[in-house]
Amino acid sequence: MSEPLLLVANLVKRFEGIVATDNLTLDVAAGELHAVIGPNGAGKTTLIGQLGGQVTPDSGRIRFAGNDITALPIHRRSWLGLARSFQIASLFLDLSVLDNVALAVQAQAGHSFHFWRDARREPELRQPARAALARVGLAQRADFPASVLSHGEHRLLELAMALAGQPRMLLLDEPMAGLGPEESARMIELLRALKRDLTILLVEHDMEAVFALADRITVLVYGRAIASGTPEAIRANEEVRRAYLGEGDEEATVQT
Q: Which domains does the chain have, with CATH numbers?
């Protein structure tokens, strides 16, 4: 059997005595959408931070595409094909939508930001940026200032920025945070389309989205995985049902 695209082994992270990641082991197969859920404070964002390189683990190992990336800086992980979106969008609101994505292409390629004005004319930056915008449905907004986009469009723009470097795997931290029903439905359909081509690790509080999209789900509590399996197995897990899904409640609505 081939090695999973992402393999996390015995990961530990503490913050001043608080165990945010507690000897965590999980894997994500190529082509899988793997969701991570759990209550507030379960360590979900800390986990994604360690995978993306923003947080350094105290111990354990992270392997991606056959490489040990535990100590690699963020840009090296990006070069290997690992891209992350954040729970709170980080955009250049005074730049155009296209410029934001072109900057992401530039950063992934390792180009200097000191020559951004000239880089605006570079087709090797603009063409993949436009392709990423088209992929998320923002092609018609390319020349608008990012500041005029709605919150939902900001989430789509951030996703386009993650896609701009043509990653093998996306780490998505609550992409549906703050979205209304129509925007959430649009995001679900987009992620369903993306999972045909990409491996995705999804942290999300929207249980309807999680159960609609996930191939497997891992449930965290206090940094420890208490269950991992198919959506059907997670729904049937008594410990998970009592803690998060509501005893006898098939329509999970609790926060993660």
A: 1-81+168-256 (3.40.50.300), 91-166 (no CATH)
